[in-house]
Structure prediction request, 799 residues.
Amino acid sequence: MVRWTDTKVAIVLLTPLFILNFGLSIYPMAYSLYLSFHDINLFLNKFEFVGGLQYLKLFDDKSYIEATMVTIRFVIDSTVLVLFLSIAIALLLNRAFTGQSIMRVIVIMPWALSEFAAATAGRYLFNGSYGFVNAILYRLGLIEKYIDFLGSPYVVELLAFMYAWHLAPLGVFFILAGLQTIPEDLNKQAKIDGASFFTRFRVVTLPFIRYAVIMTGIIATIESARTADMIIVMTGGGPGTSSQTITFYIYKVFFRGLDLGYGAAGSWLLMVGLIIAITSYFIVISKRRRVMQY
Amino acid sequence: MVGDKISRRKALSTAGKVVIGVVAAGAIAGATGYLAGSSAAPARIVERTVTAPGRTVTVEKTVTLTGPATVAWPPWKPEPVKPTVPLKWVHWGYRPDIITENIGIFMEQNNENLEQEQITGPDYQGLVETKFLAGEKFDMVYGNAFMAFRWVELGFTNTAEELPHIEWVKAEMFESVKRAYSDKQGRLAGLTYFVSATPALIANDELLEKAGMAGELPRSHAELYDMLRKIKQRAPEGMIKPYVPHWFNAFWGTVWSLLAEVAGRARDPDLTKTMFGKDFAPTFDAAPGDTVYETVSDWRKLVDEDLVERAVISASSDTVGTEAFWTGSYAFGRLNGLYGYWNTMDPAKSRIAGKATLVPVTAEAWGLIDTGLYCWPKNNHDFDRSARLILWFGYKDNNGKHTSADKWAKEEFLHTAYPAVLRDPDVQRAWEARLGPKTKETAERSEKWLETMASPWVWRSPLYGEWMVKAPDYLAKCLAQEISPRDAVSGMRKLADELWKKYHG
Prediction:
């Protein structure tokens, strides 16, 4: 009779997950790393090992550098907006009011939409000729003629706004969960002590939701750095190339240009950048924890 | 002559000559008809009667002017037993209802088993090529002309030359389409799903009338741009901008617009004189007098003078421009394909339905070939079954009818390589329901568009695949007023030089 120890059971249960993870994540990632050290050309029947040449080429590629700057701008804008909207909406939903449950369902809706659908909505909202926002502003007498929002120098901010609208509901629910763990007495005591709203938020609320906020920030950073649908649908990287992010650029090089080695190297460089950004978040968290402990 | 006596020898000799003559005439007529390849011509019976002394000899020979197509089609038999392994068709999914209906007819007529797989989105080519590389078996796949050439070159697909009786198919095609579908060796890269010309130039009749230019249509790009300036000055009521260009950030946006306009302006339909030579070496330059440079400079002037709808420049597909034009607030619009005009005339979609005109080709050609081909993967389930599939959809069904082409023409105004389909009274009647009194002029004009459209020779080189990915960035930056036309053209030229060196140097 086979003796089923806890370890054996764990191995049996984890094996399908490991196979799935290996097939869908580990192998493709390893293969993409392998590709990034090669120069591949289907027509020339070329699959040549070139070491780190593809990575060096990226540093010399003006389009990639421009796309990096756009990505940094987009990620910062999106993350700040997501955090601001998530905290604000969570604070509102944490108050008792009639129809609270319905509001919570409504708030989650943009997250339930696909990114493609959210981007399509954004395109219609901000269209320069027949967009909804233009129509409202014009009818209210706030503008004399329609504004070409998606052709403006602030197109990256508009994209970030639509992205934040799509992603913030997730943060709202993380933060709302944190808010509901705050003992009501703490707020009452702070009020009696005469603390203002902002002081109460900083001293009472923030420590309870800090990890939810950090998690929201991490998710917003990773997700916004790798988004392509929003850009493709709303602006196609335009006007010119002013909203072309790294992901979109890599997508064009890899899928449309079929320059597989170069595209893979671009993806890995993006991944390194993201790892650095996420690590810095964790450093901030652990530093804060040490300060609090001692 | 009747009743005159002739010798037995002479009578037999005469009868023999007649028989030989008739048979020879039949053979010649048959061969002529075969070469002419006109399937619309009826079979003809040649008959001569000779009266010889004592008896009458009637000599009869049926001569088919159409070639074997009408008498021997289809060159296949339905499957005796429905195959268990289905054929597979990979497509980009436009009007899946029509596709599914056609699949039903094909399966019924041939007792076949056919599955479909839809790949949507702008990375269609990449995903299909991933399938080829992975060794996946499929039997038919949609491709644009440049994809079809690429796939043949890479050994992913067969040419259509290997299909049985391909000469019958070719004999029925527009010459311009046949040329456009032929690879470097002159082999047909696939059969026609549809063929159109892009970007279609459409006039908004109502706005032109308001601008005091009713019925005026441009004959060249220079005339069009002059008209735009006049229209802006006259500022007709309800106009946002005079022009919706086809300048969005996709390979079929700015780049195709450039290819089409340069070909038209320079009267160089294969663009070998003005852009890429027969050896695919780039020939354009950022110098005054160069058609590419002049075209990009003219575009930039249109932007600087605020004559165009700028939202198009920040779009990744044709949808933004098309929807803008359909609001009725623009005098001229460049839309995807001749089918763009068909949709403009649809009152459910467009506010200028019934009040729009397809600008005819008179002096300069306007369009570039926009086509879908049925390509024939080498790694198919069964050579004969997949050949039948390609022929059925790309040519004729078991009853000798262009079922697929006919349906696309009637329902979507998708033109085909076969003029007989476009001239079919049933098809024209279907168009009349939407185009009304403009049907005849539109049918004639669209044929002229197809006959004169550009078909870039460079599509047969792998350098185009990479060039079309990066070149739009230069054009987009120029149109967004970030770089000058000189820098845009220089950038595109430098890129072309590098790619030429890579693939052909």
Summary: The first helix of chain B runs from residue 8 to 36.
